[in-house]
Amino acid sequence: MAATVERKEYPISMRLPEADVAMIDRAASLRGRSRTDFVREAAVRAAEEVVMEQGLIRMSPEGFADFMGVLSLPVAPVPEMVELVGRPAPWEVDYEPKQ
């Protein structure tokens, strides 16, 4: 009797317009990936985002009060963030070509 093997991968089939396949192929090529790898990664990433959006955070009334208390504290500037926000954007800087 042959031993049963648990399946580890499952096929997914889709019908897509030619323009969609061309876009996917172009993006996959730019990433150096196969179409299958690119689509799998994109689909899993999108699925993870949806699942994470649905996460429920539970806490006790005391924990919630503490949380709200922290949110209600006066803000204090973070020197590194102040400096970062004060920098010009890369497209606003004139660069001298190196010689």
Descriptive key words:
99 residues; mainly alpha; 4 helices; 0% strand; CopG family transcriptional regulator; toxin-antitoxin system; TacA_1-like; DNA-binding
Secondary structure topology:
Layout: H1 18-31, H2 35-53, H3 61-72, H4 79-86
Helix pairs in contact: 1-2
Family: Belongs to the TacA antitoxin family.
InterPro entries: Ribbon_hlx_hlx, TacA_1-like
Keywords: DNA-binding, Repressor, Toxin-antitoxin system, Transcription, Transcription regulation
Please provide a brief summary of the model.
GO terms for molecular function: DNA binding. By secondary structure, the protein is mostly helical.
Distance between the termini: 75 Å
The biggest sheet amounts to: none
Approximately what portion of the residues adopt beta-strand conformation?
under 5%
User: Assembly type of the shown chains?
Assistant: single chain
Low-confidence parts: none
Alpha carbon gyration radius? 25 Å
Mean pLDDT across every amino acid position: 91
Structural classification: mainly alpha
> What overall geometry do the principal axes of the alpha carbons give?
flat
Query: What is the β-strand count?
Result: 0
Number of helices: 4
* Percent helix: 40-55%
Spell the H/E element sequence: HHHH
